[in-house]
Amino acid sequence: MFNLEKLRMVLVNAYENSKYYNNLFSSAEFDPYQFSSTAELLKIPFTDKSILRSNKEQILSRSIPKEKLLYVTTGGTSGIPVEVYYTKGRERTRELVFMTDLWKRAGYKKGDRIARLRGTVVTPKGSNSYFRYEPVKNRLYLSTYDLYEENLPFVL
């Protein structure tokens, strides 16, 4: 019951503060104020990456000032990166906590070596490297765009 109430609060917030979700819910005849079952979510059309890209400004919440938002992009591992906004300071921390919890469930311990596949890997200026290594976190970031057999000697 608690989770349904929290989800209802998120849906009401989206309806009240996002032009995109207000229009989407209205056109789907979905009333977030009356939400009581996850089955009702089937009324809402699926939102894919192309919809996110073409409606990014309308999706933004009117309740959060622009100066409190951080513009980021996804890695683009499935093709074209998606541009999104985080609330400065909060979502990045939540994401890290979430990811660390998932890694722990898979057996990760702090300090273990990690190889992360990313769409784009930012490397130091002047570098033509296909990877970036963070020694403090013991993480190797690899660009999925550059993982070709001929590049493997540069990564391994």
Write the layout of secondary structure elements.
Blueprint: H1 2-17, H2 19-27, H3 49-54, H4 56-59, E1 69-73, E2 83-87, H5 91-105, E3 114-118, E4 131-134, E5 139-143, H6 152-155
Parallel strand pairs: 3-5
Antiparallel strand pairs: 1-2, 4-5
Helix pairs in contact: 1-2
SSE series = HHHHEEHEEEH
Span of the ends, CA to CA: 50 Å
| Main β-sheet description | 3 strands, mixed
Lateral strand order in the biggest sheet: 3-5-4
Counted by DSSP, the helix tally is 6
- Give Rg in angstroms: 20 Å
Question: Helix/strand-derived class?
Answer: alpha+beta
- Which residue ranges are poorly predicted, with pLDDT under 50 across at least 5 consecutive positions? none
Strand content: 15-25%
The average pLDDT score comes to: 84
Helix content: 25-40%
